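Re: beginner question about structure tokens

> Can someone show what the tokenized structure looks like for a real chain? I only ever see the sequence side.

Sure, here's an example I had lying around. Input first:
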Amino acid sequence: MTLEDFPNWLELWTQLVPGARGSLALVKNYVPADKCRCGPFGPLRSHPDFGFVHSFHEDGPLDLPWDRLAQMDLLVQESMSYVGGRRDFLQTWFLPYVMQNWQEAMLECPHGTAFLMLISLDVMQDWMGINAARSFFAVSVALGALVQRAPCHLKFSVLDERFTGNSFFPNFDRLPFLLGIEHVQWRCHPESPKVFVYEVDDRWTHCHLCASVGMPASDVWLHLMLSASTCRTSFAEEADMFFVPRYRQSGAGTNYTTWYRTEFMQLLGELKHFPARPQDHIFLFPEEFWPIVVDDAFGPDGPLRTSVILSPEAWPVSCSMPVGASKQVCAHTPSPPGLIVIPSFVDSYRRLELRKHNRPVSQRRVLLCFLGLEGTGRSGTTENYRHLLHALVGEPGVHIEAFLTNYREYAQVMGNSIFCLIPKGIGTWTHRLFEAMLAGCIPIILSDDVQLPFPDLPWETFSLKWPMRRVDQRLMRYLRYLERIAPELKASVDKHACWFDYHSEDHECTPLFGLTRQLRSGGMADDGSSARERFWVPWRPEIVWHILACTECMEPPGREPASDGSAGSDLSHAGVQALCAGTNVC
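And the corresponding structure tokens:
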């Protein structure tokens, strides 16, 4: 959705949203057709977290110049970075005042008012519910459509017909779906079980607009997609499975033990069908920190021991102190038996940036990149080997540096690189894998124990999984070999990226379709251990055995050869010995 779609969306809104029919008429009465003053507006006081609003006197009034807001918008649009303090400022100062003086605001600066109303939709839902957010959107859409005939000396990004989103509007083009007027039916696998989606108390799913942003937002998007899917049933008695929505932001805080033993157990008590059919219930934990006590939940008498768990992390992280505390000691805990690994969420504007800079291999000038380098010591709260990447800094064709806060530059680097390093983070999974896929950058997975989404995909045709402790010249040597088939690998990356894209236009290639394909077996997950080697390479595995093993006479960590005697692409001890026996390298 762009500005060109506003008139059509407005007409639809006036039909569907209570109170929205009068939005256009009201706006027409207050929007000047031929001028835009956008001068100082209203007595407001400063807010310490809002960098573009400055008090003129400690106890005196503060004008809110619209040009300051336009400058803030410009900064966000150009830097593609997050600007803090938005929600706090809106909740404390702007919205309470404008809601009492909105006619004055539209008369003074309709362009700025449309901008501010759009960036306030999540706050409005948080305060007054989804219908208030819909009505707010209807008014802002009316303003956006009408101000095109009143050119303004100030520029607001959302009023540009080419605008697709930024950190203020991370899923701008998905607003109709998020707000419930785009009636899309998402495809499930034809053999998917019928899924009943619980309507839980608001405290578990409060303000889905607030929670719909960032990589943990898979809990919101899968909830909304399942609710509008071909496999949903409204009748619990005919359901094969039951999805339990609970958003990450709904209150676990930092002390998971207390929350699990009080709040989470209350949630279980509210699930009418859970006592009789716990094995058919689906829970989603969208990051490596699960807000439960793993030993209690999945132990012999644990309430979730037979349930289906969705998460990007197969080995949840447990810490000796509350999450976020200093001097944490964290470790991975065993994977539950009913696990299905899912992709994390990539915001729409990030996805569009990554796809926009997805170049053909022939136009990529960097062999290998990683943006997220930290100090020379080991980093993170769990075992981590990112410090080994320092050995590659300065290598020809290698771009390794700290994380770039400007997401456009981040996407440009990935789109200009043939291979992207995907090292382990705090968890065994990492969000960079799904960003690399969207950028068409062949991922090199450096996380020995990670379990990946959808293990039935041919991962060896579009990725490498390399031992994370052996990131050195041996890897570079192999990549020089592999560069000759990079176009074929990149084509496979592009072909399979839709499986990890929550905005995919192909509704038979989405995270939901992949998930329901796994659920069709009755809910118990296949973690891929029977079908996926611990490491793999897409071409000439004997070269890798030579490079990794023979140069040091070391046994690489890996599985034994398959039962049929073939070594495949696994870095197995037997395969290494067979190759090295006839050489003089070791």
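Each token stands for a local structural state, so reading them left to right follows the chain. The two ends are 61 Å apart (CA to CA).
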